[in-house]
Design goal:
Largest sheet: 5 strands, antiparallel
Strand content: 35-45%
Bound molecules: zinc ion
Radius of gyration: 15 Å
Strand order of the largest sheet: 6-5-4-7-8
Helix content: under 10%
Order of helices and strands: HEEEEEEEE
Structural class: mainly beta
Number of strands: 8
Number of domains: 1
Length: 132
């Protein structure tokens, strides 16, 4: 079971891309920098109205934690699981779950790639898995 994230006008392009199997982050048309999660203005130069760019979906585990106690009843059957910050190849860091391996095998610096899990007809969640 998954907890379904809310979708707003700000985050809609992210979720629509995920549903299509693409990972996107915001990019500033003025300074060219990218970031995640979505914001109404560039966190670096404060230019409003950022655009979006598709990223490769590869990166490395920057840091992680193994969750052994459910923080929500909907996650009771999911423990233990890994929540990580993945540093994308393009630079931005994303909070995500690590799948496709034992929780004890996750390490900082581990190469990972995005994988998508459709949880409803509308919502697909990006996770990351080890690169074989
Ligand atoms: Zn900027």
């Amino acid at each position: 079971m998954a907890i379904i994230p809310g979708m707003t006008d700000l985050t809609r392009p992210y979720w629509e891309a995920a549903r299509e199997g693409r990972l996107v982050v915001q990019q500033c048309p003025a300074c060219g920098r990218s970031w995640h999660p979505p914001l109404p203005a560039c966190p670096h130069c404060h230019r409003a109205g950022p655009g979006w760019r598709e990223v490769a979906g590869t990166g490395t585990v920057y840091t992680y934690t193994v969750v052994r106690h459910p923080t929500h009843v909907a996650l009771a059957d999911a423990i233990p699981y890994v929540i990580a910050i993945v540093e994308l190849t393009e630079g931005p860091r994303v909070v995500t779950g690590i799948t496709g391996c034992d929780v004890g095998d996750v390490r900082a610096g581990m190469p990972v790639r995005v994988t998508f899990s459709a949880v409803t007809g509308e919502v697909t969640l990006p996770y990351f898995e080890p690169v074989a």
